[in-house]
Amino acid sequence: MAQPLVGVVMGSNSDWEVMRHAAGQLRVLGVPFELRVVSAHRTPDLLFQYAETAASRGLRCIIAGAGGAAHLPGMLAAKTLLPVLGVPIPSRYLKGMDSLLSIVQMPKGVPVATFAIGEAGAANAALFAAALLAAGDGELAVRLQAFRAEQEAAVLAMAIPEEG
């Protein structure tokens, strides 16, 4: 396995149902990544250690999925200079709006790129990570362009069913 370039972290293994879409998209594009469960509230020392060592371990960015109060992306961003891409996880009562607002409303000076709630956000965070990396990796840029060409071809091949 190649040296991971992207960290994919989540606050709980229950977030995997959403975050697997980030991992799957990275896998399709051939971007090496690592998976971790790191809780901002239950394992703060682990969170600090993970963030503080991420760059020295070769990571180039971190995709962080979190639900509820969603402090994981912001706390990671506070402890590393690497780009942090936040994915709001849908929550039981507020359907992820609480997570979205917690991630997107970072104070000035501690940025977190924030994506859509749920599966689309996880996949798009992975595509964004790939685009960041592709700026310095021609082979990845070719794979990313091929992915986009496949998307275009799929749309162009669509037909609208006739009313019956």
Folded structure, characterized:
The chain has 164 residues and is α/β, with parallel strands linked by helices. It is built from 6 helices and 5 strands, in the order βαβαβαβαβαα. It has helices spanning 16-29, 44-54, 72-79, 97-104, 119-134, 138-156, and strands at residues 6-10, 33-37, 61-66, 84-88, 113-114. The longest helix is centred in the last third of the chain and has 19 residues, at 138-156. It is globular, with a radius of gyration of 17 Å.
Low-confidence segments, ≥5 residues, pLDDT <50?
none
As a percent range, the share of strand residues is 5-15%
Please give the largest β-sheet.
Answer: 5 strands, parallel
SSE order: EHEHEHEHEHH
Radius of gyration: 17 Å
Record field, number of beta strands: 5
Structural class: alpha/beta
Overall morphology: globular
Work out the helix count: 6
Strand order within the widest beta sheet: 2-1-3-4-5
**Average of per-residue pLDDT values:** 96
Residues in helices, as a percent range: 40-55%
Distance between the termini: 52 Å
Keywords:
single chain; 164 residues; alpha/beta; five-stranded parallel beta sheet; 6 helices; globular
Give a brief rundown of this model:
The protein has 164 residues and is of the alpha/beta class. It has six helices and five strands, in the order βαβαβαβαβαα.
Write the topology of this structure.
Blueprint: E1 6-10, H1 16-29, E2 33-37, H2 44-54, E3 61-66, H3 72-79, E4 84-88, H4 97-104, E5 113-114, H5 119-134, H6 138-156
Parallel strand pairs: 1-2, 1-3, 3-4, 4-5
Helix pairs in contact: 1-5, 2-3, 5-6
